[in-house]
Specification:
alpha/beta, Aspartate Aminotransferase, domain 2, Aspartate Aminotransferase, domain 1, 2 domains, 7-stranded mixed beta sheet, 4-stranded antiparallel beta sheet, 15% strand, binds pyridoxal-5'-phosphate
C-alpha cells in the first residue's frame, strides 16, 4: 500500500469532516451520567436542539445512526397494516420504504425519475384520490443523498392541506439539516428525522426525531409494540434514565454541544449561504466538465440541486469506480459512490459541514486529474469555473 501524506479530503456525503473543536470536546474522561451536572447539561442540549429543528415540539436523541431514527419515527406513528405514501426522491426514499415494508407497513411509492424534485401537485392528486383517508403518513426525504436533489417540503405540506388530507408528514432531513433552510413548525412537519454525521459535523452515532404535538398524540394511541424507540418512555419527566433508554452517549453529546456552539457562532443564515456558495461552485465545475460529453449533473434543474451533495452522471462507457479509486489512492480524496439504480453510472461529491473554498478547489482539482488519468473526456478548467462561480456568488 502506498503511504499517503497530507490532508485526507473527506468529500463523502456522510460522514463529513469533524472539526478539531468537536473532536477535542470529546477528548475527556467519562462522567457520571445520572449525576446532576450531566443531567443539566443534557436538558440544555434538548432545548437547544429545538432551535436547530425550528420547533416548539420535542427533540429526542438516540444513540443510533439515521436508520435508527427512521425506525423510531415509523414504530411510534404507524402500525402494521397502515398505509404510507413515499414520494420517490431517490435511493433513500426507497431504503426507508424497505424498512417500513419489513415493519409490516404498506408502502405506496409515488414514482419519480430521480432527476427532478418531487412535484407537490402529484402528492395533492394522490391524496385527493384517497377519499377514505387510508394513507396514514407521507414519508418525504428533503434532500435525497443518492440523487443530490432537494424537494420542496413546504410545497408538499401545502399540497396535503389543499387535498384536506389528515396524514402525518414525516420528513428525513438527515442530509439537509444545517446545510439548507428547514423550518419544522412553520412548514407543518409532524416528525423530523436527522442524524449527527452530516451537517451537524459529528462522528456517526446520534439519531434525532423532532416530534410535534400531533405526532405525539398519534404515538400515544399507537399500539405497535416498541420499547427502545418509544418516545413516551424517553420523555418521562420523572426518570432521566429513560431519556436514552440506558447509558447516555456522553461523548457524542459533548461533541454535539461544541457543534451547536459553533453553529450559533457562525449563524444559520451564514451556514446556509456558505453551503449554497460552495455547492454552486461544484456545480459550475461539473457543467464545465460536461462539455466533454461524458459527464453531467444528475439534477437537471439548477434550482433543485442540493446544497449538500452533488451526483455526477458518467457515460456508461466509463466506470465511475475508477474515478473514485484514483481519487482515493493517488490524491487522498474520498468521494461518494453511486447508489441504487444509478450505482454504476454515477459518483458523488459531498459538500456539507465543516468546509471552505480551498477544500472545494482541492477536491475539484483531484477529480479533474482523475478524469484525465481515466481517459474520460471532459471540458478542462473545473477549478477556474468554481472560482468564477464563487466570486459571482459573493
Ligand atoms: C445518510 C442518510 C441516511 C442514512 O443515515 P445513516 O446514519 O447512515 O443511517 C438516510 N437518509 C438520508 C437522506 C441520508 O443522507
Amino acid at each position: 500500500m502506498t503511504v499517503k501524506r497530507g490532508w485526507n479530503f473527506l468529500q463523502t456525503p456522510g460522514p463529513t469532516n469533524i472539526p478539531f473543536r468537536v473532536l477535542n470536546a470529546m477528548n475527556r474522561p467519562a462522567v457520571e451520567f445520572l449525576g446532576p451536572d450531566f443531567v443539566d447539561f443534557s436538558k440544555q442540549l434538548f432545548v437547544d436542539l429545538k432551535t436547530v429543528f425550528k420547533t416548539d415540539g420535542d427533540v429526542i436523541i438516540y444513540a443510533a445512526n439515521g436508520h435508527g431514527a427512521w425506525e423510531a419515527a415509523l414504530t411510534n406513528t404507524l402500525a402494521p397494516g397502515d398505509k404510507v405514501l413515499i414520494p420517490e426522491t431517490g435511493r433513500f426514499a426507497l431504503s426507508w420504504s424497505y424498512m417500513a415494508d419489513k415493519l409490516g407497513i404498506e408502502c405506496e411509492i409515488l414514482e419519480n425519475d430521480w432527476r427532478h424534485a418531487i412535484d407537490p401537485a402529484d402528492v395533492e392528486a394522490r391524496l385527493g384520490a384517497d377519499t377514505g383517508h387510508e394513507i396514514k403518513a407521507v414519508l418525504l426525504v428533503h434532500t435525497d443523498t443518492g440523487t443530490g436533489i432537494t424537494s420542496d417540503v413546504a410545497g408538499v405540506r401545502a399540497a396535503m392541506d389543499a387535498a384536506k388530507h389528515p396524514a402525518l408528514l414525516l420528513v428525513d432531513t438527515i442530509a439537509s439539516l444545517l446545510t439548507t433552510d428547514y423550518r419544522m413548525d412553520e412548514w407543518g412537519v409532524d416528525v423530523t428525522i436527522a442524524a449527527g454525521q452530516k451537517g451537524l459535523m459529528l462522528p456517526p452515532g446520534l439519531g434525532f426525531c423532532g416530534v410535534n404535538a400531533k405526532a405525539l398524540a398519534v404515538a400515544d394511541a399507537n399500539r405497535t409494540p416498541r420499547n427502545y424507540w418509544d418516545w413516551r418512555e424517553r420523555m418521562d419527566p420523572n426518570e432521566f434514565y429513560k431519556a436514552f433508554c440506558g447509558t447516555a452517549p456522553e461523548h457524542l453529546m459533548f461533541g454535539l454541544r461544541e457543534a451547536l456552539d459553533m453553529i450559533a457562532e457562525e449563524g444559520e443564515d451564514a451556514i446556509f449561504a456558505r453551503h449554497f456558495r460552495l455547492s454552486r461552485s461544484v456545480h459550475a465545475a461539473i457543467d464545465c466538465w460536461a462539455e466533454g460529453g461524458a459527464l453531467e449533473n444528475n439534477a437537471v434543474i439548477p434550482e433543485q440541486r442540493s446544497n449538500s451533495v452533488t451526483t455526477i452522471r458518467v457515460d456508461e462507457k466509463y466506470n465511475p469506480m475508477d474515478i473514485r479509486e484514483i481519487c482515493r489512492e493517488r490524491f487522498n480524496t474520498g468521494l461518494g459512490n453511486g447508489m441504487g439504480k444509478i450505482i454504476n453510472t454515477s459518483f458523488r461529491i459531498g459538500h456539507m459541514g465543516d468546509l471552505n473554498e480551498p477544500m472545494i478547489f482541492g477536491t475539484i482539482g483531484a477529480v479533474e486529474a482523475s478524469l484525465k488519468l481515466c481517459g474520460i473526456p471532459y471540458g478542462a478548467g473545473g477549478v477556474e469555473a468554481a472560482i468564477a462561480s464563487l466570486t459571482a456568488n459573493g
